[in-house]
Design brief:
heterodimer; A: mainly alpha; 0% strand; B: alpha/beta; FAD/NAD(P)-binding domain; four-stranded parallel β-sheet; 10 helices
């Protein structure tokens, strides 16, 4: 079984109060179709900030 | 004919020099003084440090580029500035010492009409005993601050991978090597690129990774953290950073001032005053930055270094250096024109200008040890500031000495940042972020200090594609290839 991100949480350790992504969220990070869409969206957002900064 | 001298050929200096040469044309002279023969796209050093790129991929020779641009190039380091000239001449000048092969140590006085100090930082390894040597290639820790450092880091990293393949467990300790470091982002990128490469090499289960940093919370990054809009919430970068560290199984020590490094062990002090030790097999710790140690002399030869430079060696500009404690800090403390308050033909840009104060809230341990990030002045802001300074000087040369100066306050500009978390065209990831403005303005944006409509971040493959494209785009721009002026900083 693939190790899930929440398995890295240590009870009452440094990371006990943080959120962790589920397997679907992690899959989306390298899903080529979804990331192509995000690529366009992120570029637009960045260009707006770059434009505001010059 | 006016002469503009630019000290430093990094992101800010190179941007200032190339735009000045473009705008001034051949009627005026632009001189670049830099001790390096090569330009380095520093953000990609991370990938050199894990073997994903070579030194040649991230550097190129400056001489042919400056020859093409009509820029006079002197491979030398600046030693001192005489902003009033000498007893025999009113013309200000800078004294340089050549590093060019065959002319090493040769001294020259270069007169100027306008001077841009873009020398970048001195990598102050000496601030922490055992943290590398004068070259940064110490036997105890490695660095990715220069391309050569990154090549060395990768050599040591590959040795660790070989050990793990033979069944020897390895501990990696990555972060900042002093309580007053900046550039946490570079260390952040490096630890996740290491984690990614260990996975690719099939030895991740043989490695323990730990982060050590002077940030008071994960995700501070020297800018006091940031709040990003996500799922209808304004979410702190602390949440995102802790989530990523947990997901990739990286433990952390924060609020740490590393005060000594020995073979395989660092000693540190925490914000609560306690002392600790951490062992490692491989450690990359970013050194603190300082000014390069330029001196300044008056017309009569008296030392006026303290007039021109702040105590940390960075050049004073139009910032409010008397802001006092954190409660008094304002966005308006930050410089706008980067003009020296004493000499109006002297400017500083990039890391070389003295910031008025940190961006993150300053903290100290009960023992009085200051522990907190110093403000970043790299990347996009560095380029924008360099261009604004060049614009101001060109206007004063071409339109007259009273031409208004251009402004580029970090409290009014945003920044786009892409932090790699692993290299790979289909399995790489990077955190793509924008932050607006870089310096929080709590009067204009109560609460978070920033406009959350323009401050966002997400991690994924798309971020890696952007980082990779930016690598080629900025090298293209720096080499002054067709259309370079159209590419934003």
């Amino acid at each position: 079984m693939e190790k899930k991100a929440e398995h890295n949480i240590k009870a009452y350790g440094n990371n006990f109060t943080t959120m962790t992504p589920g397997s679907f969220a992690i899959k989306l990070r390298t899903c080529k179709i979804w990331q192509l869409i995000r690529f366009i969206v992120i570029n637009i957002k960045m260009l707006i900030v770059v434009n505001k900064s010059h | 004919m006016a002469r503009v001298v630019v000290l430093g050929g990094g992101v800010s200096g190179h941007t200032a020099a190339t735009f000045a040469a473009e705008w001034l044309g051949s009627a005026h002279e632009v001189v670049v003084v830099t001790p390096n023969s090569k330009w380095n796209w520093i953000p990609s050093n991370i990938w050199v440090g894990v073997g994903g790129m070579s030194k040649e991929d991230v550097t190129f020779d400056l001489a042919p580029v400056y020859a093409k641009a009509g820029i006079t190039y002197k491979q030398a380091k600046a030693v001192s500035i005489n902003p009033e000239g000498s007893e025999t001449s009113d013309k200000p000048f800078v004294t340089i010492s050549y590093t060019l092969a065959g002319r090493e140590g040769e001294s020259e006085n270069v007169e100027y009409d306008y001077l841009i100090n873009a020398t970048g930082p001195k990598l102050n390894f000496g601030a922490t005993p055992g943290l590398g040597d004068a070259n940064g290639l110490g036997e105890f820790t490695v660095s990715v601050c220069t391309a050569d450092h990154a090549v060395h880091a990768n050599e040591e990293f590959q040795k660790c991978i070989e050990k793990m393949k033979k069944g020897e467990r390895q501990k990696f300790l990555i972060g900042t090597g002093h309580g007053l470091c900046t550039c946490q982002g570079a260390a952040f990128e490096y630890i996740f690129n290491i984690e990614h490469e260990l996975n690719k090499a099939g030895v991740r289960d043989m490695a323990d990774l730990k982060w050590i940093s002077n940030e008071s919370f994960l995700g501070d990054f020297g800018v006091g953290g940031l709040h990003m809009k996500s799922m209808g919430f304004a979410v702190s970068s602390k949440i995102f950073a802790e989530s990523l560290f947990t997901e990739r199984n990286v433990d952390w020590i924060i609020g740490a001032h590393v005060n000594k490094v020995e073979k395989g062990k660092v000693h540190y002090e925490l914000l609560d005053g306690s002392m600790g030790e951490e062992e490692f097999d491989f450690s990359m710790l970013i050194p603190p930055f300082a000014g390069v140690g330029l001196k300044a002399y008056a017309k009569d030869g008296s030392d006026i270094t303290s007039t021109v430079f702040a105590p940390n060696g960075f050049m004073k500009v139009d910032a409010n250096y008397a802001a006092g404690s954190y409660d008094n800090w304002k966005a308006s403390d930050w410089p706008k024109t980067y003009q020296n308050p004493t000499y109006d033909n002297l400017f500083a840009c990039g890391i070389a200008f003295a910031p008025p104060h940190p961006i993150s809230k300053p903290m100290s341990s009960p023992n009085g040890t200051p522990i907190g990030p110093t403000p970043p002045r790299t990347g996009m802001p560095s380029g924008i500031i360099g261009k604004a300074v060049a614009h101001s000087i060109c206007d004063r040369i071409l339109k007259g000495k009273d031409a208004p100066l251009h402004e580029a306050s970090m409290a009014h500009m945003g920044a786009a940042c892409v932090a790699s978390a692993g290299k790979g065209i289909f399995d790489g990831t990077a955190a793509a972020m924008t932050i607006y403005p870089v310096v929080p303005d709590f009067e204009k944006y109560p609460g978070t200090g920033r406009d959350v409509d323009y401050t966002f971040g997400e991690i994924g493959l798309a971020g890696h594609w952007i980082k990779h494209i930016l690598h080629h785009l900025f090298l293209w721009k720096a080499k002054l290839k067709p259309g370079w002026t159209m590419i934003p900083e």
